[in-house]
Every structure is written in C-alpha cells, then in structure tokens.
Amino acid sequence: MIYTLIRLTYSLLFCLGLPFISIKKLIRSRKNKGYRQRVRERFGFTPFKTDESIWIHSVSMGESIAIAPLVKKLALSYPHKTFVITTMTPTGSAQVQKLYKDFGNIKHSYIPYDIPCLLKRFIKRTNPKLCIIMETEIWPNLLAQCEKHHIPSILINARLSQKSATGYAKIGFIMRHMLKQISHISAQSDDDAIRFIALGMPQDKISVDGNIKYDFPIADDLLENAQSLRQRFAKQHIWIAASTHQGEDEIILETHRKLLQTTPDALLILVPRHPERFNQVAELIKTHKFNYSYRSLDQYHHNDDVYLGDTMGEMMLLYAASDIAFVGGSFVNNGGHNMLEPAALAKPVLSGPSVFNFALVAKKLQNQHALTLVNNSDELAKQLQRLFNNPQLAASQGNAALTVFQQNKGALDKQFSIIKGFLC
What we know:
- The protein is an alpha/beta fold.
- It has helices at 2-28, 61-77, 90-99, 116-126, 140-148, 162-169, 172-180, 190-199, 222-233, 249-262, 278-287, 315-320, 340-343, 359-367, 377-389, 391-407, 411-423, and strands at residues 53-57, 83-87, 106-110, 128-134, 153-158, 184-187, 206-208, 237-244, 266-272, 292-294, 306-308, 324-327, 349-351, 371-373.
- The protein has a seven-stranded parallel β-sheet with strand order 3-2-1-4-5-6-7, with helices on both faces.
- The protein is globular and about 65 Å long.
- The protein starts with a helix and ends with a helix.
- Pathway: Bacterial outer membrane biogenesis; LPS core biosynthesis.
C-alpha cells in the first residue's frame, strides 16, 4: 500500500514535469531534429500493432550496439515471433533501424514515458509476452505494469556500481519492491550480483553470466577496408579519440598540437559521441587552426592534421585504421565508453580517469597492462609519444588487450539460454 502511494506520487510528479521534458527535447531538437519527431510514440502510440511480441529495451546507441548479437540470435531462432525494440534517444533509434534493416520480425518504437496510462497503451498495442531490459534501465511503472499484465521481466547484462548501490540503499524500501517485480537478473560480475542481492533481489532469481559486450562479431572485410583507408591517409602515426563529449574535444586537440611538435606526420581521427555535435566540433577544429577533412564527404587532403569522423556506424572501421585508441567520455564525469571495441582489434587503449560505466572491463585491461589511464592533455600526449616511439610496446599492449577480449567471451550464449527458458 505504501509503495503504491509512493509510485502514485512519482507518477503525478512525472506528469507535472512533462511540459518541461517536452521543452528540453524541443531545445535539443535544434541540434538533432530526431527529438521533435515521432512524439506520439513517447505517449504509447506505436506506429504498429502486434498480436504478440517480445519487448527488448536498450536505452541508447551504445546499449543497442552491444545487445545486437543477442537480438539477432533471438530473431533468427524464433523467426515467427515479433521483437519490439524500444530506445529512448534518436541515436539509439537510428542504430536499431540500421542494425535490423534486413529483419522482418524486428520493429522499433521509442519507449513511452514512465506513466501508467502510457505504458498500458503501449502494452495493449504490442502485447509483449516477455520484457528484456538491457543493463540498468529499471523504471517503477514499467516494472509495475509488466507485473500487472503478467509479463515476465529480465534484466540482462546488469551492472550496479558501488556508488549507485549506495545511492539506491537510501531508498531501500522502494528498491526492494522494484527488484522483487523482476523475474530474473543476469549480472555481469559477482560484485554486481552481491549489490543487487543486498538491495533486496532474491538470490535464487539472479545469476552471474558475464558481459555481453565481449561477444560482438568483427566484420569479415573490416581489416581490408581499414587498410584501404590507411593507405589514403599516407600517415605513419594515427591515433583516434573516439566517442568524445563536450569539454573533451579541446583537451584532445591540445594534445594533438603537442604531439605534432615531436611527431609532425601524426593524424588524429576525432569522433564525437553525438551526431548533433559534429558541426560544433568542426568549428572547434577550425578555431584551433588545424587542417581537417570530413569522413561524411569521403575526402582527405595529405596536409590534414585531423580527420573528423562525422558518420554513424563506422567506429570499428576507424578504430581499425588507427594505431592507438583513446576512448572518450572519460575526461568528463560520464563513466567512459566501450574499451572492448579497440581491444578486439588489438589496439593499445588509453582513457581518462572516469571509467565507472566499464569499471570491471577497465580493471581487467589494466591488470594485463593493456589500458593506461591519463588525467590531462600532458599525460595523454606523453603516452601517445611513448607508444609511437616504441612499436614493440604498442604491439604488446594491443595483444594484451585482445587476449582480455577473447578470454571473457561467452555471456551471449548464457543470456540466450536464460531468455529461451522464458520463451518455452
């Protein structure tokens, strides 16, 4: 009863906040028009109806890419079932539509706001028989509606940092109720499982199955295409700063300026995380007076200092064309991004200090001397110079990264087996 009242209060506050959420999305749409498109979907009006479906939620682009091998395996194994993928962001939506364009049994919609009547409408239109949630996206009303409509819910690739667990413990009464509504949690590590159990998840409903982000495939023609791109660059020293956020690009460009003083033929491949920042970063490069080209225009000039990766879905190609990888979202307090992508290509990995989203991955890479954390532009420039000056060291660190990647595969099959048990 008390939890129901708390959830009702939360729902009322969410409703009151909707005008402000809409204004925020409208402001963001000035840079990414996707935020003002398909608004009806956020109120539960899916562009399709299904007699029965499997609902899979991955909040944004990174999660959508990570879960893709599992979704494809499910779609191929159950060709007569319809899979409804929901995301929250336009970049996630674009990625989903690109990943599954050849799958007739996979549909996409934005997830409704976490308000009971909107979720009821979504459920009525899609009729999910199972809800699969990626990593940490648990919402009170989503779980409550799944329970009310007898829809089992599974949290896969689940992670819970100590910082988050401490915060959730302050609302322990609420978390206990939410976790008990989840049918099963597939945790990334023992530590994650222990934290979920401490918050109230029944021990018999949780398993430790690893991180699905170790299980992504490498395209057969990737290395060949990367080599062709490198030949166009005609540069001996290439590094990439991938998935950068606002506030990081200045640090990266300052690092590159320092690097050019000792390595004049160095090329920086700069890939902003969000498409709405592509033009902003281009202006920043221009302000710093670097010569540069756009990937989207398929152009390159031999005197370029910077190659702007302003396309979607080509991160692995750009990683493969580089010698050293810096993974962004780590100089700002964003928790970093997927270090396993460059690791899978045997690249030495550099990162800023903020890696809480990939804490266990970072620890494994550091233990094998495959990852170096840096705190500022000076330290990053120093590490780049060190690796460029010592190709054997760079190769050793890259091979160590690849070993970590290969030794931790297997989560995909384990998570597939769990889901299969709910589909029988």
